[in-house]
């Protein structure tokens, strides 16, 4: 369905941004494997990004509601 | 149903407009998360859990960014009307 | 009209870039309001960006004309 | 008029090509402003008015960026022709 | 051939899907080059030739970036299934 | 042909990225001409970027093959 396709596209876009951000933040010199500390850093980075996404999404929704009430 | 009459179908138009709005809102959330993550979390390195300070910063960041956009939009409209 | 739609899209793109640039430049730690110094910084930043846009737009147009004369 | 004959209409094609060119030019101006604003103004912090030095820098920035693009384009074409 | 039957033509669909895949792969190569060039060459300033160290860094960069994407994708799917 | 159009689009995208990256890296204060040292820096920068593009492209192709064998 269109709905599903959009959800997938949406998820792909978050994953792309997450990879970029967390790779840049966690991998200074790319070696021959991801060390366990690299993996920990990436996992934390991506968890925090998803947390941030949820908070931002809620705050944005609330702002839109407030603006609609004002007009 | 021909292509033409399909394109003019009000139900379809409403559906497409709603989908587009949803897309725009999702794109804006991506954009805001990207900016506010950098403003509020980047400098604090590896963060094992969001503190209430991070949460407040993220919420303020969304509101201040939208304030900033509104300020600039109004200012730009003014400038355009003055024909500068 | 198509012309108007393009002008609007054009304006939206400038506004988006402006918000990104001036927010990043002026707001270090987002607080509970925009202070008057934040507002001043944002206003100056956006005015200078529009000035720059006008100068760049003119310089680009002149360059294109010069290139066309050369060929 | 059918879709097919509409798509082959020379007037429409000219109109669409002109619009596309306009879009490309506008996109290029955005891009150049973005780059040249950072090169010429960023480091000078809050600027209450553009000085002639800023203006000259912005104008040079546009020309040097386009020189840079032409240099790279020519070089890349050469490399491709040498089959490297 | 009508538009409708054309859109359902399996040969055309295969062709379009192959083109889209090609586009996606090319876009991914651009993206990876952009990221890995910065990671592996930026800090070394003007480089007159790629050393074997640069080459190894670029190759590792591609593999580690893809590892990183897979790690994050799996983690995100887990999070979603836990309904967090 | 579609193939050619894609190759052109592909080349344009590389050229765009190259110009951005090498201009930012090589031109600190834009002057009234490209000096010969500017030109040398830009040429080197773009050669290295094309080298990197070739290496990345090959490494990415190999990774995809490895992943396909695993599944």
TrEMBL record, chains B, D, E:
This is Mitochondrial import inner membrane translocase subunit. It is found in: Mitochondrion inner membrane. Mitochondrial intermembrane chaperone that participates in the import and insertion of some multi-pass transmembrane proteins into the mitochondrial inner membrane. Also required for the transfer of beta-barrel precursors from the TOM complex to the sorting and assembly machinery (SAM complex) of the outer membrane. Acts as a chaperone-like protein that protects the hydrophobic precursors from aggregation and guide them through the mitochondrial intermembrane space. The twin CX3C motif contains 4 conserved Cys residues that form 2 disulfide bonds in the mitochondrial intermembrane space. Residues 18-76 form the Tim10-like domain. Heterohexamer. Its main location: mitochondrion. It is a peripheral membrane protein. GO terms for biological process: protein transport. Pfam families: zf-Tim10_DDP. Belongs to the small Tim family. InterPro entries: Tim10-like, Tim10-like_dom_sf.
């Amino acid at each position: 369905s269109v709905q599903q396709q959009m959800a997938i596209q949406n998820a792909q876009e978050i994953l792309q941004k997450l990879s970029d951000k967390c790779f840049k933040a966690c991998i200074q010199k790319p070696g021959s494997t991801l060390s366990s500390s690299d993996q920990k850093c990436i996992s934390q980075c991506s968890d925090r990004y998803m947390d941030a996404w949820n908070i931002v999404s809620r705050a944005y929704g609330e702002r839109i509601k407030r603006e609609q009430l004002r007009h | 149903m021909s292509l033409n009459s399909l394109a003019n179908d009000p139900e379809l138009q409403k559906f497409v407009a709603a989908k587009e709005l949803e897309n725009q809102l999702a794109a804006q959330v991506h954009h805001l998360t990207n900016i506010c993550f950098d403003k509020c979390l980047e400098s604090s390195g590896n963060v094992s859990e969001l503190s209430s300070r991070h949460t407040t910063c993220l919420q303020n960041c969304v509101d201040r960014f939208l304030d900033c956009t509104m300020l600039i939009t109004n200012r730009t409209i003014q400038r355009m009307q003055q024909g500068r």
